[in-house]
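Blinded run. Sample ID left blank on purpose so nobody reads anything into the name before looking at the predicted structure. Input follows.
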Amino acid sequence: MMSSKNFLDVDESIIEKSLLIQTNEEQEFEHFVNGFLNPESGKLVKPAPGLCIKLLKTDKSKVFINLCHHPDIPPPDDITKEELEEVFNSKDPEKFCIPLSIGIEHQETDKSNAQVNVYDVAVNSEFFKKCQNDDVFQTFIVCASIEGVAEKFKIDISSENPILLKNRKCLGSLQQHRIQQRPPRPSTFKKKPLIQELNSKATLSQLDIHVKPEYKMYVQPEDNPKNIILDVCMPDVHTSQEIDLKCGEDCLLLTTNKQTKYELDIFLPYTINQNDVNVTFNTMTKILSVMSTIIPSN
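Blinded prediction complete.
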């Protein structure tokens, strides 16, 4: 049963891996020795903390990614926000390549004193600053980091429901990274000309744009969630009358009736109370905010 209030996003993963068990000290010493014996393999750097990303696996256990940065990591090709959005909608995700340094897996203790797997992903410092100032770039680097960790460690992590911890830049101690001295793989993304001529015979339906809006999800408190908050940014929407929002106990469907047609169809990581939902739309910031209480699981 669907309600006209509510919504959110989810992600689940199945993780199975077979790794040689080593302590962080043993792995770091091995990296040091390999670098000493083979200087051309690169140099060791200690990245600075940036963002801490929390993810849930299918068994509801937690995984964390420390998105960190260092100036010696090569930056990606320069790209505008509009061009990056085109990459998002492309069927070829490798059009725009971001150099990532993915460290070793290590275990840390979270707020509930549980042992969790943590992965450090380092990017260029200047590019990280750009991601901090733009939600589109931040979403892209978070997704790229999750996909990079999933591929390297052969684990199935979805990028649908990352939670960015507001008051924490990293979990545990960041590991050293060995930066290889080689040029980054070039991107295949081709920039469009500044001026494009539209076909005069194009119909209105052909010019309609379907866009998945940018959104962020938060829970309060982080260690024992009781409320869930979701902010959806829709810059082309002017009033709440343009928005159709339907929400079930664990899903949300959002659409708009403007020429730029926003569409968001997601599942929620929690069961929510449909009778306790607050929805607001700020006409200045163009942000739709949805807040609901979480029904405790039995």
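Unblinding after everyone has recorded impressions. The longest strand covers residues 272-282.
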